[in-house]
Amino acid sequence: MDYKKGKYKVKNIKLADEGRKKIEWAESRMPVMMALRAKYSKTKPLKGYRIAGCLHVTKETAVLCETLVAAGAKVSWSGCNPLSTQDDVAAALAKNGLEIYAWHGQDVKDFYWSIDRTLDMKPNLTLDDGADLIFTVHKKYPKLAKEIIGGTEETTTGVHRLRAMAADGKLLYPVIAVNDAETKWDFDNVYGTGQSSIDGILRATSVLLAGKNFVVAGYGHCGKGCAMRAAGLGANVIVTEVKATAALKATLEGHTVMTMDEAAKIGDIFITATGVKDIITKKHFEKMREGAIVCNTGHYDCEINLNDLEKIKKAKRTVRPNNEEYTLKNGKKIYVLAQGRLVNLAAAEGHPSEVMDMSFANQFMSQLRLAGYDKQGILLEPEVIDIPVTQDQEIAGIKLKTMGYKIDKLSKEQEVYMTDYSSGT
Ligand code: ADE
What we know:
The chain is an alpha/beta fold. Helices cover 46% and strands 17% of the residues. The radius of gyration is 22 Å and the shape is globular.
């Protein structure tokens, strides 16, 4: 491990050149972020702001970090998942002067140590994916919250928890729900999760998906993306749900719907995307087919109950990177990918750059917005704040332009027509 107090702790600083090539690759596919960088590196609207971030350390995140720095911010960073850090990228960021504490394969102690270090610089803005940084401020360093203008949150799970905290009157500072931007959830959660989760499964197993029974637990945006891509590769998709409307949508998309108790008996590959714990438990493992493959793409690693699996196992061995074979006492073999953690980030590289371009443009613009309010002396309530529709349109507009597409514009008459309630048939 390479450690310089107050600067970085990364696996191996010598990996920096490899990491830099990956970051350059991501930059070449993130035109919205690069346009924002070019614009705000001149005016430096984030000068004087100290941003602590806790988000997967990937090549795309590196583009976000370096854009925040280019806009004038002082940034300290940790990863938001013990298995998602790309060590070469972390090294490249550290070598370029970013304060970063992140390495692949952290244990829980390392994970919180890293968050603590990012808070040493007493941030006035926070940036989260999963809200572990915000929770740490609230639980361990509540005095720091007084200096914090606001935060931003990347993911569905984090936003749910923060809304619950705000409803209980426990949230100490305002947080912008980046996840709820249309240019985030309708792209990143669906197409990003869909592609990168299948990528993770294939890298960890190299199995053929065509003809397999592919069970998707949860038909939210992430589950929908996984189901869509698995179906595209010829799998028979089975969806399990607790919400009637979501289940109904799944059937109309051509998928089969059943309970997990039933699906457990026939599934070949299982992926959880629910944000809820104990989706696959002992009773399901016991029913599974020989050779069943189980993985998760939800934020936390509680969707597959691995403690249950440990209790009924006879033996365990790693058969491929990110693929552990459990032999049960009844002789059956079950394969668990990425230790039940986010399979797309632990076994692959996370969502592709093109989609993170829009998610991180939302992060960046939300940080600017918080700083802008601060500069105008506007105090926001400690609640969860939505992304303005104009921000979505601006980001989607830049993205389309960089892709070379043009769209039509409503005429004045058409605009009037749309809200004219005096006309009818
Ligand atoms: N979440 C999902 N994919 C990601 C990526 N490539 N970078 C950062 N966070 C992510």
